[in-house]
Specification:
single chain; about 140 residues; alpha+beta; Alpha-Beta Plaits; four-stranded antiparallel beta sheet; about 20% strand; globular; disordered N terminus
Length: about 140
């Protein structure tokens, strides 16, 4: 679990460094594009997690998947899935425009969170880099 937090912290530090560098060199005119801030749900094993089982064998995981499938079908989930290292956990990345309060409420309503299988943390994430469009 500690390595998951370190990985997420390193990723966020790298992204924020890039964003800060871009902000320092970006024009300050009204034509500057809006920033893409998302509220990411980072999951970690909760007290009900069985460390003797793989992520896909955890009782209650299917309810978690079905919960987030609702968002996927509504067009509110961009990406989501488990981390595949020994620390387990995972993250969900909502599409742009989903308000923080809605993300927090949806994460708290997750049956796996309510049952203690997972813990959920909502973090603000600024997209500092993305793939350039093909010419």
């Amino acid at each position: 679990m500690k390595s998951t937090h370190l990985l997420v912290a390193a990723l966020l530090l790298a992204v924020s460094s890039v964003a800060a560098a871009q902000t320092a060199s970006a024009p300050t005119t009204a034509t500057r594009p809006a920033q893409d801030l998302r509220f990411v749900v980072v999951h970690a094993p909760g007290p009900g997690w069985d460390s003797t089982k793989s992520v896909f064998e955890q009782p209650g995981l299917q309810a978690h998947i079905e919960h987030y499938r609702q968002w996927q079908l509504q067009g509110k989930l961009e990406l989501g899935g488990p981390f595949m290292d020994g620390a387990t956990g995972g993250m969900m990345l909502p599409v742009a425009g989903v308000p923080e309060a809605e993300v927090r409420r949806f994460a708290a309503e997750d049956p796996a969170v309510k049952a203690g299988l997972l813990r959920a943390e909502v973090r603000p994430w600024l997209i500092g880099m993305r793939r350039s469009p093909k010419p």
